[in-house]
Design goal:
Length: 206
Amino acid sequence: MNSILHLDSSPRGERSRSRQLASNFMAAWRDLHPDATVTYRDLRQTPIPHITEDWIEADFTPPELLSPELREQLKLSDELVDEFLAADRCLFSVPMYNFSVPSNFKAYIDQIVRVGRTFTFENGQGKGLVSGKKVMFITSRGVEFSSGSPFEGLDAQEPALRNIFQFMGVTDIEFIHADGLDMGDDARKRGLDEAQSKIQKLVVDW
Ligand SMILES: Cc1cc2nc3c(=O)[nH]c(=O)nc-3n(C[C@H](O)[C@H](O)[C@H](O)COP(=O)(O)O)c2cc1C
């Protein structure tokens, strides 16, 4: 049985291009997998709190030594990790903010990167504990990062996302970028059309 976690992170609602593209992806994917279980999470509707000093203490305390208070610190994180681990596939829609990800999606990442649950340390090295999962990112970005663009080399979004999901053990990671969305009508249309055709191509075997 296929299961998918679809998460939108744009603080914008109907104006959000990343939400729209992810919704298009999901509609096409569901046509191909009518029996799949879909879990939807919207960081706009349900913001994720930043981690705190108590949270960090709880994260690095062995589970059998957690006091009820420290256990409570990890309650939401446990739910988010359970949800993330339960899905065979994750579709994350993420705008680019300040060359990286919005802070709400970073807060989500901070909650799911958990010692003993999604990674561990072995011989002083991090070791991912997540396996058998496909992760797809649909991003929306105001400018273009292609070769020759003034922004070439400044994309800190894809590398950060690749690094942290690979760190947790995910090996199957895809990106669909919609670029140039705030560079005028022609660039926006080009960026959205290119993203849409990549959706149609990738959704078939995903
Ligand atoms: C606070 C903020 C920061 C942004 N920073 C960048 C940036 O660094 N690079 C970029 O290409 N676009 C940037 N943008 C443009 C957005 O990525 C673009 O408008 C995108 O469509 C937003 O996603 P959404 O339409 O799903 O809300 C920024 C937009 C906002 C509101």
